[in-house]
Amino acid sequence: MQNTFALRGNLVYTPACGELALHPHSYLVCENGALAGIFDTLPARYAGIPVEDHGDKLILPGLVDLHAHAGQFAYRGLGMDLELLDWLEQNAFPEESKFADPHYAEAAYRLFADALTRSATTRFCLFATLHRPATLRLMALLEAAGLRGFVGKVNMDRNSPDTLRETTAESLAETCRWLEESADFAHVRPMLTPRFIPSCTDEMMAGLGRLQREFGAPMQSHLSENLSEIAWVAELCPGTRFYGEAYARHGLFGGACPTVMAHCVWSGEEERALMKENGVFIAHCPQSNMNVSSGIAPVRQFLREGQHVGLGSDVAGGAHLSIFRAMTDAIQASKLRWRLVDQDLPALTMPEALYMATKGGGAFFGKVGSFEPGYELDAVVLDDAALPTTRPCTLAERVERVVYLSDGQPCAKYVAGRRLF
Amino acid sequence: MQNTFALRGNLVYTPACGELALHPHSYLVCENGALAGIFDTLPARYAGIPVEDHGDKLILPGLVDLHAHAGQFAYRGLGMDLELLDWLEQNAFPEESKFADPHYAEAAYRLFADALTRSATTRFCLFATLHRPATLRLMALLEAAGLRGFVGKVNMDRNSPDTLRETTAESLAETCRWLEESADFAHVRPMLTPRFIPSCTDEMMAGLGRLQREFGAPMQSHLSENLSEIAWVAELCPGTRFYGEAYARHGLFGGACPTVMAHCVWSGEEERALMKENGVFIAHCPQSNMNVSSGIAPVRQFLREGQHVGLGSDVAGGAHLSIFRAMTDAIQASKLRWRLVDQDLPALTMPEALYMATKGGGAFFGKVGSFEPGYELDAVVLDDAALPTTRPCTLAERVERVVYLSDGQPCAKYVAGRRLF
């Protein structure tokens, strides 16, 4: 019973999309980092185990951020009056170039890792920058913080400023070395990260495909985010019928290569069919899609099709690291899409958004994002006492209020059974 | 020189829509509650006046909330999975009914007044509820807090639950009494508040028109928010060509009656022309328009037409009282509208959103919302030190970051030259 303990509080999770499981004032037992069960009263077989009693607070699964750029955190909330491709030129590329300097990278990634640690996010897929040493440093900071997830050294060998471009050979060699050096980390693992098709030559993509097969690393990139980007990809990749094919033809689109694709705002039927077939995860990033004027992804359609969908903050296309904010952005955007674009796709609901933010995205990491038996214990404890109201609230309503109104910072956080604070 | 003092800090305001005036480390001199001028160094004639030095912090005009429901604050962030008319039935009406109880009203309005005081909002147009005593209590709390603006006792005599409906005669008599009793307040003034056309009979509207002419009170209501609401109004008011006419035919649509209309999401050409002609103020409430699935108002069109436009939090259709949040919601919504609806109407920019949040809405209150000479000194001091970044920022960029990232709570606040905290 050494590695066994219990949390007590108001437990809420989503066993299925749209379904809210509510366990007021219950015990959640954790054995060896994984969930043993939820109980109204602690069973006799657990007598004497440590109980961390969180009183009347809310306990939710840790949140999952399926897409964010750690190397852009320094300019979140800046330059938001630009569209995607201009925004990349004027904001993203100059900032990311600075990560060649290890001192700058250290300072910037420390701020990022601190903010991510304080947030309700427990798992993530992150873009770093081109720079191997800085990327390793980011991984070390996140591992030391007790967080878990994937980080990618970015690849770029075309259509990039001189300060942020590698030769193809250099990029592949650095990536190979980085994959080897990442063996130092147990819980923050490497993920292949071609920035997006316009930044990567066919030769680069083919090389990354080979590395994928050699190392078995998963992969992340951007897909069908913005209409001008899609037109550019079509130009760059003659013979492809849709954007996703530009990845798929190199074996980098799900299947044997676990893949997260950010955005998919404009993914057509063929692209979505291939995503579904290959089990590609969609990182829905509603705030970023507003900020850089991309549009609104048809999330209801994704859910109907049985796609894997999680949420991404997409810092710094999104200004906010909070996945609670991503949940409400997703709901709000889906309402506008319903009203303005397609009344056959009803808006998302709070339980659906919570599912995407936890179990939906969590599935990329294995049994993560739920309080069902066997799931790794990622949990956040939320105190809504700072949000006083005269209206009596049910437990489900308290969750909705916390998601809409809180700053997204839990008062306690557990990752794979380990308490971080 | 008794009522003369200076603020020192980084002064930022919008003399015109889209134009940002930046005065780093400057002095703003206030005489008798109004702005005397901005100076790099304090002129000799002001030698010896008290200087409140806010160091490197940002100083902006106080923000203006042109539309919020004080009586709905208790359930902000709740029941957001509903569309407007269902949301009114299930959320708004049951909550507002409670304000018949003075004890409930006291507790609920205290929470609201505290939150509004801590926020960056200095001026407002607020809906209370039907209840005269509770409305007077709200006015007293806001006046005691040092805030300034308008509050309305709501009128409803049809299509409302039994617990939230008056007879026409009762409603008009109570409104008249409330207008008389409001004479107690110097800075929080009464505003006629027919809820919206579906809640008010023609007889009620005619009576309110008479009260308007007798007391000279301004007026606020809702206009063209939601398609199902508009269809309902057309049914209820045969012979009107557009929603606004249902107000205008009773003399309650601008002109001699200073008027704020919330939403105007679907206002057509004729309605907009009449608003322009009559100087009706538009309270743009982007978050609420998302939350209750109304749509996106064509704000760029309003600005081109020279309409008066300010921002509204529309709590609790909007979950957030912060007008900073309303600014970023307005920008984000305008980007989606540009992308999805009408590429002839470019997105709003940060300086335009700041204008609407200050001088645009402030014009309803006189010379309010700018740091130009003669304006009443409403100012908020913002400390962005809690938002650290490794990226050097210009003054304009610091403002953008604070608007996107801060919790909207200033560290000091001045209303008409008086410091609140």
Automatic annotation (TrEMBL), chains A, B:
UniProt keyword list: Hydrolase, Metal-binding, Zinc
All copies of domain Amidohydrolase-related, residue ranges: 59-388
Pfam family, one: Amidohydro_1
Coiled coil: none
Keyword check for Zinc: yes
Record GO terms (molecular function): guanine deaminase activity; zinc ion binding
GO biological process: guanine metabolic process
Cofactor annotation: Zn(2+)
GO cellular component: cytosol
Keyword Metal-binding: yes
Name this polypeptide is given: Amidohydrolase family protein
Lineage of source species: Bacteria, Bacillati, Bacillota, Clostridia, Eubacteriales
